[in-house]
Write a structure and sequence with these properties.
Blueprint lengths: L6 E7 L5 E7 H16 L3 E2 H8 L3 H14 L2 E3 L5 E4 L1 H11 L3 H17 L2 E8 L2 E8 L21 H9 L2 H9 L7 H14 L2 E4 L6 E9 L5 E10 L10 H16 L7
Antiparallel strand pairs: 1-2, 3-5, 4-5, 6-7, 6-10, 8-9, 9-10
Length: 268
């Protein structure tokens, strides 16, 4: 049985750059391994399935899950049968994402864009399960939406997802798009993404949520890779999705400014 305070030797580096012995808490390492396996599933799972994937007995996995639940890293569904990541795990992930340059730099742009347009605005970055909202500021008009910090957006039906689908490496985008898109729609969706690449902006008119329109613009780093997307969304009656409309122009101007601050050179 693993003792909660048992230590395991680890290699470390001393001030002279030489390897030296160090000690870590083995029970924490086992718990983190179990948490990593749970994260890789990407969905709530049964105890037996999780234990098998982690290479440990169900009894042992259950002991660790009890402690992980108490810390908020893991939660069980209402029926008490499946385990998923908890609220604290989400907060840890968001804190890590917030250390990225794109979140620090583009975070202020969310409020700026909201003030300039009076529409709700969000910032999304690419997470392990797809486009993930990390910042959001609501406009003055009431907006009934499921969008909130931590939510993973559709790659096919959201403007944000379409921006990522258009500019991510093809193999990455195709994997996520294929999980949502019927094969018979591949040709039309490819044409849609080609248009997004030309315009550097995507839009939806009620596809993600009825009565809500959205525009999204990609953010690029100094290598020209997409690292995020700024998205405006609002009630269809008060949201102009025209490619050359005032909302599209404001969004593209702010997105270009953020990309420039991230080192992107459009002509480079």
């Amino acid at each position: 049985m693993v003792k909660m305070d048992q230590e395991s030797p680890k290699k470390a580096i001393n001030d002279d750059g030489e390897a030296k012995k160090g000690f870590g808490v083995q029970s924490i390492e086992v718990g983190m391994h179990l948490l990593k396996v749970l994260m890789e599933f990407g969905r709530p799972v049964m105890l037996k399935e999780l234990a098998e994937a982690a290479g440990m007995s169900a009894q042992k996995a259950h002991r660790y899950l009890v402690s992980l639940q108490r810390s908020g890293m893991v939660e069980q569904d209402a029926a008490g049968r499946r385990y998923g990541l908890g609220e604290f795990a989400l907060n840890v992930g968001l804190a890590a994402l917030s250390q990225l340059n794109v979140v620090r730099i583009a975070g202020d742009a969310v409020a700026e864009l909201r003030n300039r347009t009076d529409q709700s605005c969000l910032l999304a970055v690419w997470g392990s399960h797809g486009p993930t909202i990390v910042r959001m500021s609501e406009g003055s008009r009431p907006l009934v939406t499921t969008a909130r910090v931590g939510v993973v957006l559709s790659m096919v039906n959201s403007a944000t997802g379409r921006a990522f689908a258009a500019f991510l490496p093809r193999e990455t985008a195709d994997e996520f798009v294929a999980a949502e898109l019927p094969p018979e729609d591949n040709e039309s969706f490819s044409a849609l993404l080609a248009d997004v690449r030309i315009r550097s902006i995507s839009r939806t008119e009620g596809e993600e949520q009825a009565t809500i329109n959205a525009l999204s613009a990609p953010l690029f780093d100094h290598f020209g890779n997409i690292v995020g997307a700024l998205t405006l969304l609002g009630p269809e009656k008060h949201f102009n999705v025209d490619w050359e409309g005032p909302l599209a122009r404001e969004l593209q101007a702010v997105a270009k400014s953020v990309s420039n601050r991230l080192g992107y050179n459009e002509t480079g």
